[in-house]
From TrEMBL:
Top-rank taxon, per record: Bacteria
Name of the protein described by the UniProt record: RpiR family transcriptional regulator
Source species: Aeromonas cavernicola
Gene Ontology BP terms: carbohydrate derivative metabolic process
Positions of the HTH rpiR-type domain: 1-72
GO molecular function: carbohydrate derivative binding; DNA binding; DNA-binding transcription factor activity
Sorted UniProt keywords: DNA-binding, Transcription, Transcription regulation
Domain SIS intervals: 111-247
Length: 268
């Protein structure tokens, strides 16, 4: 549909449409902010293009684009099972290496310092990002640091309303564009809480709220939410953060030992 109507659009929308048609796979992993910047247009232009092809917004447009791209790929010859096996392993290793190159060590150090001094730590994340939030909560608990994890953003918003300047919120979102998460984070920031964002996207509405932004490789597309590559990348960032916490607070190693001993009675 986009290709069919392209000639009837304004010059700006034509340039934007040509960008999408030339690089559909790349567009799937761009936020609306990134697409506007990469195509030298604006977020308003992106929204107009989406509505011009019958979509209510950018998320719906990306889903339609993903389904069309998937259909085109389905018509291609099936790769050999051994090739798919090798590709998954190679892409996973590449995701970890890319994350190592992307991660901001200064942001990690600052995040660790704020966490170590915080009155309390709250973790917000929905859907697949909640899994990463739960993993972070577990790693902090092993160090003797209690952190509440919220996957229900109504409760997160209520929690955010009770925070103050000595509290830390870690917001986990691969896209950085989840509306209800963004609402809770804005509430927390308005209360003076320190915001750490863990994302697979460096430019997003959520990133603008961050005091520290921790970026992992491999952003997700509409049909790849919760993908293995993006999640292991985020988990690597968590491990690097834990490492920094231990360097700032070596006494936490004792807490790790104590928490391990606490579970011994349940091990065979």
């Amino acid at each position: 549909m986009l290709r069919h109507h392209l000639s009837s659009y304004s010059q700006t929308l034509q340039r934007l449409g040509q960008f999408v048609l030339a690089q559909p796979q790349r567009v799937l992993y761009l936020t609306i902010t990134e697409l506007a910047r990469e195509s030298s247009t604006s977020e308003a232009s992106v929204t107009r293009l989406c509505r011009g092809v019958g979509c209510r917004g950018y998320s719906e447009f990306k889903m339609a684009l993903a389904l069309e791209t998937q259909q085109e790929q389905a018509n291609q010859p099936e790769p050999l099972a051994t090739h798919a096996f090798t590709t998954l392993i190679e892409e996973s290793v590449a995701a970890l290496r890319d994350t190592g190159a992307l991660v901001d060590q200064s942001a990690l150090q600052q995040s660790a310092a704020r966490l170590g001094a915080a009155r309390q730590c709250q973790i917000y994340g929905v859907a697949a990002s909640a899994i990463i939030g739960d993993y972070l909560s577990y790693r902090l608990l092993r160090m003797g640091m209690s952190a509440q994890q919220f996957s229900d953003m109504h409760r997160a918003a209520m929690n955010a309303a009770s925070l103050g300047p000595n509290d830390v919120v870690i917001a986990v979102s691969s896209s950085g564009s989840t509306k209800d998460l963004l609402h809770a984070v804005k509430l927390a920031k308005g209360r003076g809480a320190h915001i750490i964002v863990l994302s697979n996207t460096s430019r997003s509405p959520l990133a603008t709220q961050a005091d520290q932004l921790l970026v992992a490789a491999k952003p997700e597309g509409p049909l790849t939410a919760g993908s293995f590559h993006s999640k292991i990348s985020a988990m690597l960032v968590i491990e690097l953060l834990i490492q920094q916490l231990l360097e700032h607070h070596p006494e936490r190693a004792t807490a790790i030992s104590s928490s391990a001993k606490a579970t011994l009675p349940w091990l065979i």
